[in-house]
Design brief:
Number of helices: 19
Structural class: alpha+beta
Strand content: 5-15%
Distance between the termini: 25 Å
Strand order of the largest sheet: 2-1-10-9
Largest sheet: 4 strands, antiparallel
Shape: globular
Helix content: 55-70%
Protein backbone atom coordinates (compact mmCIF):
# COMPACT_ATOMS: atom_id res chain seq x y z
CA UNK A 1 0.00 0.00 0.00
CA UNK A 2 1.43 3.45 -0.87
CA UNK A 3 2.91 5.13 2.23
CA UNK A 4 1.24 7.99 4.03
CA UNK A 5 3.16 10.82 5.59
CA UNK A 6 2.47 13.57 8.11
CA UNK A 7 2.71 17.32 7.80
CA UNK A 8 3.26 19.60 10.80
CA UNK A 9 0.40 22.13 10.65
CA UNK A 10 -0.27 25.27 12.69
CA UNK A 11 -3.88 26.43 13.04
CA UNK A 12 -4.23 30.11 12.00
CA UNK A 13 -7.17 30.59 14.38
CA UNK A 14 -5.92 29.26 17.70
CA UNK A 15 -2.24 28.55 17.06
CA UNK A 16 -2.46 24.84 17.86
CA UNK A 17 0.24 22.73 16.24
CA UNK A 18 -0.75 19.24 15.11
CA UNK A 19 0.16 16.47 12.70
CA UNK A 20 -2.05 16.02 9.62
CA UNK A 21 -1.91 12.88 7.45
CA UNK A 22 -0.74 13.44 3.89
CA UNK A 23 -1.35 11.03 1.02
CA UNK A 24 0.72 11.41 -2.13
CA UNK A 25 -0.28 8.29 -4.10
CA UNK A 26 -4.00 7.64 -4.60
CA UNK A 27 -4.58 4.30 -6.32
CA UNK A 28 -8.17 3.38 -7.21
CA UNK A 29 -7.41 -0.35 -7.19
CA UNK A 30 -5.80 -0.19 -3.76
CA UNK A 31 -8.41 2.12 -2.19
CA UNK A 32 -11.65 2.32 -4.21
CA UNK A 33 -12.91 5.21 -2.09
CA UNK A 34 -10.19 7.59 -3.32
CA UNK A 35 -12.36 8.54 -6.31
CA UNK A 36 -15.16 9.84 -4.09
CA UNK A 37 -12.58 11.59 -1.88
CA UNK A 38 -11.09 13.38 -4.87
CA UNK A 39 -14.53 14.39 -6.16
CA UNK A 40 -15.58 15.68 -2.74
CA UNK A 41 -12.31 17.57 -2.18
CA UNK A 42 -11.44 15.37 0.80
CA UNK A 43 -7.78 14.78 -0.10
CA UNK A 44 -5.00 16.05 2.18
CA UNK A 45 -7.47 18.01 4.30
CA UNK A 46 -6.53 19.07 7.82
CA UNK A 47 -8.82 20.07 10.68
CA UNK A 48 -7.60 21.61 13.92
CA UNK A 49 -8.36 19.27 16.86
CA UNK A 50 -8.84 22.25 19.17
CA UNK A 51 -11.10 24.71 17.35
CA UNK A 52 -12.23 22.84 14.25
CA UNK A 53 -10.71 25.23 11.71
CA UNK A 54 -9.78 23.30 8.59
CA UNK A 55 -9.21 23.21 4.89
CA UNK A 56 -7.20 21.68 2.09
CA UNK A 57 -3.40 21.65 2.42
CA UNK A 58 -3.12 21.99 -1.38
CA UNK A 59 -0.25 19.51 -1.63
CA UNK A 60 0.68 17.61 -4.81
CA UNK A 61 -0.43 14.00 -5.36
CA UNK A 62 -0.78 11.42 -8.13
CA UNK A 63 -4.10 9.68 -8.89
CA UNK A 64 -3.87 6.25 -10.52
CA UNK A 65 -6.70 4.41 -12.29
CA UNK A 66 -5.16 1.17 -13.64
CA UNK A 67 -8.42 -0.03 -15.23
CA UNK A 68 -8.34 2.99 -17.55
CA UNK A 69 -4.51 3.10 -17.64
CA UNK A 70 -4.55 6.70 -16.48
CA UNK A 71 -2.28 8.60 -14.10
CA UNK A 72 -3.29 12.14 -13.12
CA UNK A 73 -0.72 14.36 -11.45
CA UNK A 74 -1.91 17.25 -9.27
CA UNK A 75 0.91 19.79 -9.21
CA UNK A 76 -0.29 23.17 -7.89
CA UNK A 77 1.67 26.25 -8.85
CA UNK A 78 3.16 26.62 -5.36
CA UNK A 79 4.55 23.06 -5.31
CA UNK A 80 7.96 24.32 -6.37
CA UNK A 81 9.96 27.53 -6.61
CA UNK A 82 10.66 27.00 -10.31
CA UNK A 83 10.05 24.56 -13.13
CA UNK A 84 13.01 22.39 -12.10
CA UNK A 85 11.64 22.00 -8.58
CA UNK A 86 8.18 21.18 -9.91
CA UNK A 87 9.62 18.56 -12.27
CA UNK A 88 11.52 17.04 -9.35
CA UNK A 89 8.29 16.76 -7.37
CA UNK A 90 6.56 15.17 -10.36
CA UNK A 91 9.38 12.66 -10.68
CA UNK A 92 9.22 11.79 -6.97
CA UNK A 93 5.47 11.14 -7.11
CA UNK A 94 5.72 9.01 -10.25
CA UNK A 95 8.55 7.03 -8.69
CA UNK A 96 6.52 6.44 -5.50
CA UNK A 97 3.63 5.08 -7.56
CA UNK A 98 5.83 2.78 -9.63
CA UNK A 99 7.78 1.59 -6.58
CA UNK A 100 4.49 0.40 -5.06
CA UNK A 101 3.67 -1.75 -8.12
CA UNK A 102 5.04 -5.14 -9.17
CA UNK A 103 7.41 -5.01 -12.13
CA UNK A 104 5.05 -6.85 -14.50
CA UNK A 105 2.31 -4.23 -14.05
CA UNK A 106 4.43 -1.16 -14.78
CA UNK A 107 3.45 0.36 -18.13
CA UNK A 108 4.51 3.31 -20.24
CA UNK A 109 1.53 5.52 -19.38
CA UNK A 110 2.87 5.82 -15.82
CA UNK A 111 5.83 7.81 -17.14
CA UNK A 112 3.56 10.37 -18.82
CA UNK A 113 0.90 11.37 -16.29
CA UNK A 114 -1.60 14.06 -17.23
CA UNK A 115 -0.72 17.14 -15.18
CA UNK A 116 -3.16 19.58 -13.54
CA UNK A 117 -2.40 22.79 -11.67
CA UNK A 118 -5.85 23.18 -10.06
CA UNK A 119 -8.28 20.74 -8.51
CA UNK A 120 -11.29 21.86 -10.56
CA UNK A 121 -9.84 20.62 -13.86
CA UNK A 122 -8.56 17.42 -12.28
CA UNK A 123 -12.02 16.70 -10.81
CA UNK A 124 -13.57 17.22 -14.25
CA UNK A 125 -11.13 14.70 -15.70
CA UNK A 126 -11.99 12.14 -13.00
CA UNK A 127 -15.70 12.68 -13.65
CA UNK A 128 -15.04 12.12 -17.35
CA UNK A 129 -13.27 8.84 -16.54
CA UNK A 130 -16.22 7.80 -14.39
CA UNK A 131 -18.58 8.40 -17.29
CA UNK A 132 -20.23 11.50 -15.83
CA UNK A 133 -21.49 13.90 -18.50
CA UNK A 134 -21.14 17.68 -18.54
CA UNK A 135 -24.89 17.91 -17.90
CA UNK A 136 -24.62 15.69 -14.82
CA UNK A 137 -21.67 17.72 -13.57
CA UNK A 138 -23.63 20.95 -14.01
CA UNK A 139 -26.65 19.43 -12.25
CA UNK A 140 -24.50 18.32 -9.31
CA UNK A 141 -23.03 21.83 -9.02
CA UNK A 142 -26.53 23.36 -9.11
CA UNK A 143 -27.63 21.01 -6.34
CA UNK A 144 -24.71 22.02 -4.12
CA UNK A 145 -25.52 25.68 -4.73
CA UNK A 146 -29.19 25.06 -3.88
CA UNK A 147 -28.25 23.44 -0.56
CA UNK A 148 -26.07 26.48 0.20
CA UNK A 149 -28.94 28.88 -0.54
CA UNK A 150 -31.37 26.86 1.57
CA UNK A 151 -29.01 26.86 4.54
CA UNK A 152 -28.50 30.63 4.24
CA UNK A 153 -32.22 31.34 3.92
CA UNK A 154 -34.74 31.37 6.75
CA UNK A 155 -37.05 28.36 7.15
CA UNK A 156 -39.96 30.55 6.03
CA UNK A 157 -38.26 30.90 2.63
CA UNK A 158 -37.74 27.15 2.16
CA UNK A 159 -41.13 26.35 0.56
CA UNK A 160 -40.62 28.91 -2.20
CA UNK A 161 -37.00 27.85 -2.88
CA UNK A 162 -37.98 24.16 -2.95
CA UNK A 163 -40.90 24.84 -5.29
CA UNK A 164 -38.72 26.84 -7.68
CA UNK A 165 -36.03 24.14 -7.76
CA UNK A 166 -38.16 21.00 -7.60
CA UNK A 167 -36.35 19.47 -10.59
CA UNK A 168 -33.04 19.45 -8.64
CA UNK A 169 -34.41 17.55 -5.66
CA UNK A 170 -33.55 13.88 -6.07
CA UNK A 171 -31.62 11.10 -4.36
CA UNK A 172 -28.31 12.75 -5.25
CA UNK A 173 -29.25 15.95 -3.43
CA UNK A 174 -30.25 13.95 -0.32
CA UNK A 175 -26.95 12.06 -0.48
CA UNK A 176 -25.04 15.36 -0.61
CA UNK A 177 -26.97 16.77 2.38
CA UNK A 178 -26.26 13.61 4.38
CA UNK A 179 -22.57 13.85 3.47
CA UNK A 180 -22.42 17.50 4.59
CA UNK A 181 -24.20 16.55 7.82
CA UNK A 182 -21.67 13.80 8.57
CA UNK A 183 -18.75 16.12 7.92
CA UNK A 184 -20.28 18.84 10.10
CA UNK A 185 -21.06 16.48 12.97
CA UNK A 186 -17.45 15.25 12.91
CA UNK A 187 -16.19 18.78 13.65
CA UNK A 188 -15.33 19.52 17.30
CA UNK A 189 -17.74 22.48 17.34
CA UNK A 190 -20.66 21.35 15.17
CA UNK A 191 -23.32 23.22 17.16
CA UNK A 192 -25.93 25.21 15.27
CA UNK A 193 -24.50 24.29 11.85
CA UNK A 194 -25.39 20.62 12.35
CA UNK A 195 -28.81 21.57 13.71
CA UNK A 196 -29.56 23.68 10.62
CA UNK A 197 -28.58 20.86 8.25
CA UNK A 198 -30.65 18.35 10.24
CA UNK A 199 -33.65 20.69 10.09
CA UNK A 200 -33.27 21.07 6.31
CA UNK A 201 -33.00 17.31 5.82
CA UNK A 202 -36.10 16.71 7.93
CA UNK A 203 -38.04 19.37 6.03
CA UNK A 204 -37.16 17.90 2.63
CA UNK A 205 -38.04 14.39 3.81
CA UNK A 206 -41.48 15.52 4.96
CA UNK A 207 -42.31 17.96 2.17
CA UNK A 208 -41.07 16.29 -1.04
CA UNK A 209 -42.17 13.14 -2.87
CA UNK A 210 -38.61 11.84 -3.18
CA UNK A 211 -38.00 12.54 0.50
CA UNK A 212 -41.04 10.56 1.54
CA UNK A 213 -40.07 7.71 -0.81
CA UNK A 214 -36.54 7.57 0.61
CA UNK A 215 -37.92 7.58 4.15
CA UNK A 216 -40.31 4.73 3.28
CA UNK A 217 -37.40 2.76 1.80
CA UNK A 218 -35.30 3.28 4.92
CA UNK A 219 -38.20 2.16 7.13
CA UNK A 220 -38.75 -1.04 5.12
CA UNK A 221 -35.03 -1.90 5.10
CA UNK A 222 -34.76 -1.20 8.82
CA UNK A 223 -37.75 -3.43 9.57
CA UNK A 224 -36.27 -6.34 7.63
CA UNK A 225 -32.83 -5.85 9.24
CA UNK A 226 -34.41 -6.09 12.69
CA UNK A 227 -36.22 -9.36 11.85
CA UNK A 228 -34.44 -11.12 8.98
CA UNK A 229 -36.50 -14.15 7.91
CA UNK A 230 -38.06 -15.50 4.73
CA UNK A 231 -41.46 -14.26 5.83
CA UNK A 232 -40.29 -10.74 6.70
CA UNK A 233 -38.30 -10.57 3.45
CA UNK A 234 -41.39 -11.42 1.41
CA UNK A 235 -43.48 -8.81 3.23
CA UNK A 236 -40.77 -6.18 2.73
CA UNK A 237 -40.54 -6.95 -0.99
CA UNK A 238 -44.31 -6.64 -1.39
CA UNK A 239 -44.25 -3.27 0.40
CA UNK A 240 -41.18 -2.00 -1.48
CA UNK A 241 -42.00 1.34 -3.14
CA UNK A 242 -39.52 1.08 -6.05
CA UNK A 243 -37.07 -1.12 -7.94
CA UNK A 244 -34.05 0.12 -6.02
CA UNK A 245 -35.58 -0.99 -2.71
CA UNK A 246 -36.34 -4.39 -4.24
CA UNK A 247 -32.74 -4.70 -5.46
CA UNK A 248 -31.33 -3.89 -2.02
CA UNK A 249 -33.69 -6.37 -0.34
CA UNK A 250 -32.85 -9.16 -2.78
CA UNK A 251 -29.12 -8.54 -2.36
CA UNK A 252 -29.25 -8.58 1.45
CA UNK A 253 -31.83 -11.40 1.63
CA UNK A 254 -30.30 -13.80 -0.93
CA UNK A 255 -29.46 -16.49 1.70
CA UNK A 256 -33.16 -16.57 2.71
CA UNK A 257 -34.49 -17.01 -0.83
CA UNK A 258 -34.80 -20.80 -0.82
CA UNK A 259 -37.46 -23.11 -2.25
CA UNK A 260 -39.77 -22.34 0.69
CA UNK A 261 -39.54 -18.60 0.04
CA UNK A 262 -40.63 -18.95 -3.58
CA UNK A 263 -43.40 -21.36 -2.53
CA UNK A 264 -44.77 -18.62 -0.27
CA UNK A 265 -44.55 -16.07 -3.08
CA UNK A 266 -46.38 -18.37 -5.54
CA UNK A 267 -49.00 -19.00 -2.86
CA UNK A 268 -49.54 -15.26 -2.43
CA UNK A 269 -49.95 -14.90 -6.20
CA UNK A 270 -52.50 -17.73 -6.35
CA UNK A 271 -54.50 -16.24 -3.48
CA UNK A 272 -54.39 -12.66 -4.80
CA UNK A 273 -57.36 -10.88 -6.27
CA UNK A 274 -57.52 -10.09 -9.99
CA UNK A 275 -56.37 -6.51 -9.23
CA UNK A 276 -53.40 -7.56 -7.05
CA UNK A 277 -52.15 -10.51 -9.11
CA UNK A 278 -50.36 -8.58 -11.93
CA UNK A 279 -48.28 -6.60 -9.43
CA UNK A 280 -47.23 -9.77 -7.57
CA UNK A 281 -46.35 -11.53 -10.83
CA UNK A 282 -44.24 -8.55 -11.89
CA UNK A 283 -42.56 -8.62 -8.45
CA UNK A 284 -41.66 -12.30 -8.91
CA UNK A 285 -40.10 -11.59 -12.31
CA UNK A 286 -38.17 -8.65 -10.88
CA UNK A 287 -36.86 -10.75 -7.96
CA UNK A 288 -35.66 -13.46 -10.34
CA UNK A 289 -33.99 -10.90 -12.64
CA UNK A 290 -32.16 -9.22 -9.76
CA UNK A 291 -31.12 -12.57 -8.34
CA UNK A 292 -29.72 -13.64 -11.73
CA UNK A 293 -27.80 -10.36 -12.00
CA UNK A 294 -26.29 -10.89 -8.55
CA UNK A 295 -25.33 -14.49 -9.35
CA UNK A 296 -23.72 -13.39 -12.63
CA UNK A 297 -21.79 -10.64 -10.84
CA UNK A 298 -20.68 -13.17 -8.22
CA UNK A 299 -19.40 -15.52 -10.92
CA UNK A 300 -17.49 -12.64 -12.50
CA UNK A 301 -15.96 -11.81 -9.11
CA UNK A 302 -14.89 -15.44 -8.67
CA UNK A 303 -13.16 -15.32 -12.06
CA UNK A 304 -11.45 -12.03 -11.20
CA UNK A 305 -10.20 -13.33 -7.84
CA UNK A 306 -8.99 -16.56 -9.46
CA UNK A 307 -7.03 -14.52 -12.03
CA UNK A 308 -5.50 -12.48 -9.20
CA UNK A 309 -4.47 -15.67 -7.40
CA UNK A 310 -2.79 -16.83 -10.60
CA UNK A 311 -0.85 -13.55 -10.80
CA UNK A 312 0.25 -13.87 -7.19
CA UNK A 313 1.46 -17.42 -7.81
CA UNK A 314 3.50 -16.39 -10.84
CA UNK A 315 5.02 -13.14 -9.60
CA UNK A 316 8.44 -12.96 -7.97
CA UNK A 317 7.18 -10.32 -5.52
CA UNK A 318 3.78 -11.44 -4.13
CA UNK A 319 3.84 -8.83 -1.35
CA UNK A 320 4.11 -5.94 -3.81
CA UNK A 321 1.51 -7.52 -6.09
CA UNK A 322 -0.88 -7.98 -3.16
CA UNK A 323 -0.34 -4.37 -2.09
CA UNK A 324 -1.23 -3.23 -5.60
CA UNK A 325 -4.51 -5.20 -5.46
CA UNK A 326 -5.40 -4.51 -1.84
CA UNK A 327 -9.12 -3.91 -2.36
CA UNK A 328 -9.46 -7.32 -4.06
CA UNK A 329 -8.09 -9.25 -1.06
CA UNK A 330 -11.59 -9.80 0.29
CA UNK A 331 -13.42 -12.75 1.84
CA UNK A 332 -14.08 -14.23 -1.60
CA UNK A 333 -10.38 -14.19 -2.48
CA UNK A 334 -9.44 -15.77 0.86
CA UNK A 335 -12.09 -18.47 0.35
CA UNK A 336 -10.70 -19.34 -3.09
CA UNK A 337 -7.13 -19.34 -1.75
CA UNK A 338 -8.10 -21.57 1.18
CA UNK A 339 -9.99 -24.00 -1.05
CA UNK A 340 -7.10 -24.35 -3.50
CA UNK A 341 -4.60 -24.83 -0.66
CA UNK A 342 -6.77 -27.56 0.88
CA UNK A 343 -7.16 -29.29 -2.49
CA UNK A 344 -3.39 -29.23 -3.09
CA UNK A 345 -2.77 -30.76 0.34
CA UNK A 346 -5.40 -33.46 -0.17
CA UNK A 347 -3.95 -34.60 -3.50
CA UNK A 348 -0.40 -34.59 -2.10
CA UNK A 349 0.84 -31.74 -4.30
CA UNK A 350 3.58 -30.51 -1.97
CA UNK A 351 5.01 -28.00 -4.46
CA UNK A 352 1.60 -26.48 -5.22
CA UNK A 353 0.75 -26.30 -1.52
CA UNK A 354 4.05 -24.53 -0.78
CA UNK A 355 3.40 -21.99 -3.56
CA UNK A 356 -0.12 -21.32 -2.25
CA UNK A 357 1.20 -21.03 1.30
CA UNK A 358 3.77 -18.48 0.08
CA UNK A 359 0.91 -16.42 -1.37
CA UNK A 360 -1.11 -16.82 1.84
CA UNK A 361 1.84 -15.55 3.89
CA UNK A 362 2.29 -12.53 1.59
CA UNK A 363 -1.44 -11.69 1.67
CA UNK A 364 -1.49 -12.02 5.46
CA UNK A 365 1.48 -9.64 5.73
CA UNK A 366 -0.20 -7.06 3.50
CA UNK A 367 -3.54 -7.27 5.28
CA UNK A 368 -1.90 -6.89 8.69
CA UNK A 369 -0.22 -3.74 7.42
CA UNK A 370 -3.63 -2.12 6.95
CA UNK A 371 -4.91 -3.02 10.43
CA UNK A 372 -4.60 -1.01 13.65
CA UNK A 373 -1.40 -2.21 15.38
CA UNK A 374 -3.23 -3.81 18.33
CA UNK A 375 -5.43 -5.89 16.02
CA UNK A 376 -2.51 -6.98 13.85
CA UNK A 377 -0.54 -8.01 16.93
CA UNK A 378 -3.50 -9.91 18.42
CA UNK A 379 -4.12 -11.64 15.10
CA UNK A 380 -0.55 -12.95 15.03
CA UNK A 381 -0.78 -14.17 18.61
CA UNK A 382 -4.05 -15.98 18.01
CA UNK A 383 -2.52 -17.71 14.98
CA UNK A 384 0.19 -19.35 17.12
CA UNK A 385 -0.14 -23.14 16.61
CA UNK A 386 0.49 -24.05 20.28
CA UNK A 387 1.32 -22.57 23.69
CA UNK A 388 5.08 -22.99 23.19
CA UNK A 389 5.00 -20.97 19.97
CA UNK A 390 2.76 -18.38 21.64
CA UNK A 391 5.20 -17.99 24.53
CA UNK A 392 8.09 -17.51 22.10
CA UNK A 393 6.15 -14.75 20.31
CA UNK A 394 5.23 -13.03 23.57
CA UNK A 395 8.83 -13.07 24.81
CA UNK A 396 10.02 -11.65 21.48
CA UNK A 397 7.59 -8.71 21.73
CA UNK A 398 7.64 -8.19 25.50
CA UNK A 399 8.19 -4.43 25.09
CA UNK A 400 4.83 -4.18 23.29
CA UNK A 401 2.86 -5.87 26.10
CA UNK A 402 1.82 -2.55 27.65
CA UNK A 403 -1.14 -1.93 29.96
CA UNK A 404 -2.93 -0.31 27.01
CA UNK A 405 -2.53 -3.47 24.90
CA UNK A 406 -3.72 -5.70 27.75
CA UNK A 407 -6.79 -3.45 28.17
CA UNK A 408 -7.43 -3.85 24.46
CA UNK A 409 -7.45 -7.64 24.88
CA UNK A 410 -10.06 -7.32 27.64
CA UNK A 411 -12.30 -5.16 25.44
CA UNK A 412 -11.88 -7.49 22.47
CA UNK A 413 -12.76 -10.51 24.59
CA UNK A 414 -15.99 -8.83 25.72
CA UNK A 415 -16.87 -7.95 22.12
CA UNK A 416 -16.31 -11.54 20.98
CA UNK A 417 -18.51 -12.93 23.76
CA UNK A 418 -21.29 -10.54 22.74
CA UNK A 419 -21.05 -12.09 19.26
CA UNK A 420 -21.11 -15.65 20.71
CA UNK A 421 -17.52 -16.29 19.65
CA UNK A 422 -16.76 -18.18 22.85
CA UNK A 423 -13.82 -20.21 21.55
CA UNK A 424 -11.98 -17.11 20.36
CA UNK A 425 -12.79 -15.25 23.57
CA UNK A 426 -11.45 -18.12 25.69
CA UNK A 427 -8.26 -18.10 23.63
CA UNK A 428 -7.90 -14.36 24.29
CA UNK A 429 -8.18 -14.97 28.04
CA UNK A 430 -5.31 -17.45 27.81
CA UNK A 431 -3.23 -15.06 25.67
CA UNK A 432 -3.81 -12.20 28.11
CA UNK A 433 -2.79 -14.32 31.11
CA UNK A 434 0.44 -15.42 29.41
CA UNK A 435 1.11 -11.85 28.20
CA UNK A 436 0.70 -10.49 31.74
CA UNK A 437 3.18 -13.05 33.02
CA UNK A 438 5.74 -12.16 30.35
CA UNK A 439 5.20 -8.42 30.92
CA UNK A 440 5.74 -8.83 34.67
CA UNK A 441 8.94 -10.86 34.42
CA UNK A 442 10.24 -10.18 30.92
CA UNK A 443 12.13 -7.33 29.35
CA UNK A 444 11.49 -3.75 30.57
CA UNK A 445 8.29 -2.23 29.24
CA UNK A 446 7.74 1.12 27.64
CA UNK A 447 5.55 3.69 29.37
CA UNK A 448 1.82 3.18 30.06
CA UNK A 449 0.82 5.43 27.17
CA UNK A 450 2.89 3.55 24.67
CA UNK A 451 1.39 1.16 22.18
CA UNK A 452 2.70 -1.01 19.36
CA UNK A 453 2.53 1.81 16.85
CA UNK A 454 5.12 2.54 14.22
CA UNK A 455 7.06 5.80 14.68
CA UNK A 456 5.72 8.82 12.83
CA UNK A 457 6.56 8.85 9.16
CA UNK A 458 8.75 11.61 7.78
CA UNK A 459 7.12 14.60 6.14
CA UNK A 460 6.32 14.30 2.45
CA UNK A 461 9.29 14.97 0.23
CA UNK A 462 7.17 16.96 -2.17
CA UNK A 463 6.44 19.65 0.41
CA UNK A 464 8.67 22.50 -0.69
CA UNK A 465 10.61 24.72 1.65
CA UNK A 466 9.94 28.45 1.83
CA UNK A 467 12.33 31.19 2.92
CA UNK A 468 10.83 31.59 6.41
CA UNK A 469 10.35 27.86 6.94
CA UNK A 470 6.55 27.99 6.81
CA UNK A 471 3.82 28.20 4.19
CA UNK A 472 0.23 29.33 4.50
CA UNK A 473 -2.25 27.25 2.47
CA UNK A 474 -5.21 28.77 0.60
CA UNK A 475 -7.45 27.70 3.51
CA UNK A 476 -5.22 29.55 6.00
CA UNK A 477 -3.56 26.53 7.59
CA UNK A 478 0.18 26.91 8.08
CA UNK A 479 2.45 24.02 7.14
CA UNK A 480 5.79 23.93 8.91
CA UNK A 481 8.75 23.17 6.67
CA UNK A 482 11.52 21.03 8.06
Amino acid sequence: MPPRYAAAVTCPSCGTRFQAPVQQVLDVRVEPDVTSRVLSGNVNVARCPSCGTGGALNLPFIYHDPANEIALLYLPVDSGADMAARQKTAGQLTRQLMDAMPAEEKKGYLLQPETFINMETLVKRVLELEGVSEEEMARSQSQRELVGRLLQASQEQWPELVSENEALIDGGLFAFIEYVLQMTQAAPQAGSDAEAIEALHEYLVEQTDIGRALAARAEILRGFAEDPSGESLLEALIEAPDDETISVLVQTGMPLMDYGFFQQLVGRIDEASAEEKPALQALRRRILDVRDEIVAAGEANVRDRSVLLGKLLSTEDPVRMANSHLSELDDLFLTILGAQLQEAQQRGDQGGAEDLQRVATAVNQVMEGTMPPEIALTRRLMAAPNDEALMEQLQAISKLLTPRFLEFLVALEGSMREQDQEEGADRLVQIRAMAQAVAAGGAPQVGPQASPVAPPAPPAESVQRSADGEERTPSGLIIARR
